[in-house]
Write a structure and sequence with these properties.
Elements: E1 3-8, H1 15-28, E2 33-37, H2 43-48, E3 57-60, E4 63-67, H3 70-88, H4 108-122, E5 128-132, H5 137-143, H6 145-162, H7 164-180, H8 193-209, E6 215-221, H9 225-241, E7 245-251, H10 257-262, E8 268-271, H11 280-285, E9 299-302, E10 307-311, E11 320-323, E12 329-333, E13 336-340, E14 353-357, E15 360-364
Parallel strand pairs: 1-5, 1-6, 2-4, 2-5, 6-7, 7-8
Antiparallel strand pairs: 3-4, 9-10, 10-15, 11-12, 12-13, 14-15
Amino acid sequence: MPQILTFLGKGGSGRTTVAIAAAKQQANLGRRVLFVSQDPTPATGILLGVPLTDKPQSIGANLEVVLISATVAIERGWEDVKQIESRYLRSPILRNVYGQELAILPGMDSAIALNALRQYDASGKYDTIVYDGTGDLTTLRMAGMADSLSWYLRRFVAVVEESDLWRTVSPIMQPAMAAILTIAWTGESVMSAPMQEANKFLEQSQSVISNPQRVVGYLVTSEDTAAVATAKYLWGSAQQSGLTIGGIIFNRGIVSDTVGAEFDPLAVTSIPMRMGADWQPLIDAMPDFSQAVTAPKPIAIDAAKREVRLYLPGFDKTQVKLTQSGPEVTIEAGDQRRNLLLPPPLKGASVTGAKFQNGYLIISF
């Protein structure tokens, strides 16, 4: 299975340059590489030396590049949605709505990019996929999308099933739904086949995102104070998305002891400035991306100790909020929120204590 690399950092820190160098490094190692851009402007194509299109094209040995075009992707994706609908409804209602008519709404780009990456990942054609996205909280929310959608599905289904209204109407709805759906529906649960399928898909997506052998992010920064601060903020925010940060790439400068200490225990790699069309010095300076598995994991659950540890670097205890208003625990850090689905030994248990120590939020049950 391929490893997906992505890069985070302040705008102007050199994320795209680093992403291209990483793709070239992986291709030189003999890995089949796909460089995925989400930038519709000509800038990335100029750096690569070829205009990007919505279909993968080879630009060298082992290296292909592609642009995720939201308008093209939504048109293709809409046909998939209509096919799914036709599997469960006897008379599909979306068949007369066409993908060419759909406009791109805010937030759609992330879902489209995530689906495109999933398809390239499942194609079996690549060993490494380098995703050059926005490199900010939008990318992190995309990484955490499966976890968020899983929570919405899990919680709202439970709320509906527990309601008096559902208990009242479900016996009446059974014959009506049987006439509409192409599948048997017992009325015992709202978790019909489509929802079970959605749950399975979301669980698989979560397991991929949380595995650093499959998906890993790297922070890109320079000696600029704002760039360093942004990288630290994105580091902590990435943990809330379940994305492992494998290291720091320090662009266009020498890493000082002070900057190195800011990102301890992550490895900091310094790379030189790119000079014209000569990429080799940058390629040679790239880190060993296979070592990302040694980075601190975003979350560790110890059921025997009845303890959950979340690594939240870049935040202090005044910026972290812990609440438990239902069967799950909610952690807020910065502008990110995460709902923890606890394992069976801790499910339904109340929080008995919490402390913030050395970048870790430690929750006891």
